[in-house]
Design brief:
Strand order of the largest sheet: 5-4-10-11-2-9-6-7-12
Radius of gyration: 30 Å
Structural class: alpha+beta
CATH class of the largest domain: Mainly Beta
GO molecular function, one term: U3 snoRNA binding
GO biological process, one term: endonucleolytic cleavage of tricistronic rRNA transcript (SSU-rRNA, 5.8S rRNA, LSU-rRNA)
Number of helices: 5
Domain Ribosome biogenesis protein BMS1/TSR1 C-terminal: 54-300
Biased composition (Basic and acidic residues): 35-45
CATH topology of the largest domain: Elongation Factor Tu (Ef-tu), domain 3
Mean pLDDT: 82
Largest sheet: 9 strands, mixed
InterPro entries: Bms1/Tsr1 (IPR039761), BMS1_TSR1_C (IPR007034)
CATH superfamily of the largest domain: Translation factors
Low-confidence stretches: none
């Protein structure tokens, strides 16, 4: 071959992409980056408002194990939902809850029955009660009695269309303890939130948070109530008791707090529907780490 010396050569562009080298970081550095990433996403409520239904998988957790109870839906509003797969996860008394084949007809029948007979207004009557608890029997305050329509002593899936007040500071998380007042009943419940509306497959998206000024369907298992009854939603708030004064001996005891009810929302009772499906949606997201022609590695 002839000597070319330091002669320069020139070649055309290659049809193959340039290869890239990725250096695997040490485990300590990986853990540090993961903690920094999680710290940037610490405020879960704000993340839910901006990026709802996104979940994070730990690097050492397999997605097929973490998402084993999830299923794929081609269309969230149209695709049919197989309820037979949910039976192993049903509550123990789910099959014993009150169900209605014709809610409107049953409601009209119960109202008509209540208008027939009974005691006319303004009459004084004697009411005899059996098995009255001692705390109720010894109360100095007068006792109030309320009549119930047919089936209102039974339990069913209670749904209310609830709106969280816009002046509430923090969003409300599903399964958070609330105090619900509708009619003569005041209940302490842990409802779950879901989107309202009518869908062909009766599947509604589970809401992890109810943000101020927004509306959702709150559901729990409780006593049946006929009609569109107005609802008041309260929440317990801990505050310092202003009536407790400091002792004169100078010893400071533990702080005394009292509970008061804050009105945080209002709503209306909607028809109970045991076939209403509340589905939790999961969206997997992450940061691209390695990008090749056909394979993309996403971490975190």
């Amino acid at each position: 071959f002839p000597e070319t010396g330091d002669a320069m050569t020139e070649g055309g562009a290659s049809e193959y992409p340039q290869s890239e080298m990725f250096v695997d970081r040490a485990p300590e550095e990986e853990e540090q980056q993961l903690e920094e990433y999680r710290a940037s996403r610490r405020n879960e409520a704000n993340e839910d408002l901006e990026f709802p239904d996104e979940i994070e998988l730990h690097p050492h957790v397999l997605a097929r194990e973490r998402l084993a109870r999830y299923r794929g839906l081609k269309n969230f509003k149209i695709s049919p939902w197989e309820t037979s797969e949910d039976r192993p996860y049903e509550p123990e008394d789910w099959r014993r809850l009150l169900q209605f084949a014709d809610y409107k007809g049953s409601k009209n029948k119960a109202v008509r029955e209540a208008l027939v007979g009974g005691v006319n207004p303004g009459h004084r009557v004697d009411v005899h009660l059996r098995a009255v608890p001692a705390p109720l029997r010894n109360r100095p305050q007068p006792v109030s009695l309320f009549s119930l329509l047919r089936h209102e002593h039974k339990h069913t899936v209670v749904n209310i269309n609830m709106t969280l007040n816009s002046d509430v500071e923090a969003p409300l998380k599903s399964k958070e303890e609330l105090i619900i007042q509708y009619g003569p009943r005041r209940l302490v419940v842990n409802p779950i939130f879901s989107t309202s509306g009518v869908t062909p497959n009766n599947v509604h998206k589970f809401d992890r948070y109810l943000h101020p000024g927004r509306s959702a369907i709150a559901s729990w298992i409780g006593p049946m109530t006929w009609g569109s009854v107005p609802v008041l939603v309260f929440k317990n708030k801990q505050e310092a008791d202003p009536e407790v004064l400091d002792g004169g001996d100078g010893d400071e005891g533990p702080p005394t707090t009292s509970e008061r009810l804050d009105l945080i929302g209002t709503g209306t009772v909607v028809a109970p529907d045991q076939s209403r499906v509340v589905a939790k949606r999961a969206i997997l997201t992450g940061h691209p780490f390695k990008i090749n022609r056909k394979v993309v590695t996403v971490r975190y």
